[in-house]
UniProtKB/TrEMBL annotation:
Annotated metabolic or biological route of this protein: Cofactor biosynthesis; tetrahydrofolylpolyglutamate biosynthesis
This protein's record includes keyword Membrane: yes
Region called Disordered, residue ranges: 13-39
Cofactor: a monovalent cation
Organism, scientific name: Aspergillus nanangensis
EC number: 6.3.2.17
Location of this chain's protein in the cell: Cytoplasm; Mitochondrion inner membrane; Mitochondrion matrix
One annotated GO biological process: one-carbon metabolic process
InterPro entries, alphabetized: Folylpolyglutamate_synth, Folylpolyglutamate_synth_euk, Mur-like_cat_sf, Mur_ligase_C_dom_sf
Tagged with keyword NAD: no
The protein, known as: Folylpolyglutamate synthase
Amino acid sequence: MKRTYENALKLLQTRRRTARPKGAAAPPPRDAASTPATNTLKGVPSLVGMKEWLQTLGHSDRDINRLNIVHIAGTKGKGSTCAFTRSFLHAHSRRTGFPSRIGLYTSPDLRCIRERIQIDNQPIPEELFTQYFFEVWERLQPPDGASQPRQPRYLQFLALLAFHTFIRENVEAAIFETHHGGEFDATNVISRPVVTAITSLGMDHLDQLGPTVQDIAWHKSGIFKPGALALSVPQEAGLVEVMDKRAEEKGTKLRIVPPNGSLPKNNRVLSIPVQRLNCLLALEIGRGFLQQIAPGHEITAEDIAHGVDNFSWAGRFEVLVDGDSQWFLDGAHNTLSLEQVAEWYAKNVTAQRCRVLIFSHFNEDRDGVALVKNIAQALTKHNARPEYVIFTTYDEREDGSTRIDKNLKEPETPFPDYRTIYSSLWNEIDPQAAVSSESTIEGAIKAALEIGHRNGGMQVLVTGSLHLVGGALNILRP
């Protein structure tokens, strides 16, 4: 096969599972004192095979450890914490020269697969992605005539590609976000991270990590390693007990980062408590990283100010300004996140401009009606009730075209069209709002632009789904 970017994307798609495993496989080994022993893993743990595949690629534990890795797990705020950590280290690098190159591995992507593997604040170029993709792909193929060994699945392959890329590109610091869990996550092949950190924990991915939040805490804390700094934001008391026990088992000691640290004033970035919490955690990660890797180096007040001012994380608390129109984008898709988004939006809008909500959410595992009620109540509570509400789908373009590297996972079965249900519900909640629906994201954006044209500008909140926000970004900022 010809080594092209398009062919790399096609091959990568072949590694997707058709569906998540439904039946239980084996219970995770655990101490009954740590957490209830009711949880069972479904399918083969993602960590299985990672060490052997890295060795096949020619990478030893020592090669991985030389990347100077920060490993971050949690339920909410992982991506933002990773981005804040990168921003602080980048600010320090601009002033001192260290670390000279910073790698970042996160998921999911919104606009293109290369967003998941970044170096120095930029997704790796198509040429580099293609080159390293085929190096990994071809080295993992069996020799002619040999039996076919088990091959990495989609997320495993991407993690392997990130390790391979960062090693080949000689990064001096690498920030890795876990996929879903921790203990059995593919990224947990990292044996000697410099710093590990846990963001806010909550009830998500219950089929794989639940059924209780204590089970989730047990899984997430699996990234702790002997001698590595272990940090966490404040958690519920019962969860801290689980995490403390896990830290002891792993040969380290957990430290809770207090929520009242000093940060610069920045309403765009730090207007809601959850982002301040993520920022404070990232600041302690950066400080701990430098203490371990570059004694004598410190993150200064200047570094902190630059880090906050230059923070960006696509589709998470993101603001785009176009003349008299402002677009507030966040891929929130559960009740906790939507509450935070409503608060953030309310703190950044003005009463003089008309407010528009574009919303879309279709998911087999979440109650979309409950989410619509939640965002409506939250916006009203924070005095940011939208005058116009537009419900749409996940279809991006009116002409039906799809970008070649759109990579958010498509549903296993087509979603029902809930736009009529959501519209009727919103009319009941707020009869004064002008409610409409559009068949595509592009159509919803055009409708919002027309509203803004009639009203001399507008403030649009786009939320409810990563699919929606990714599509909106692709249209608003090609």
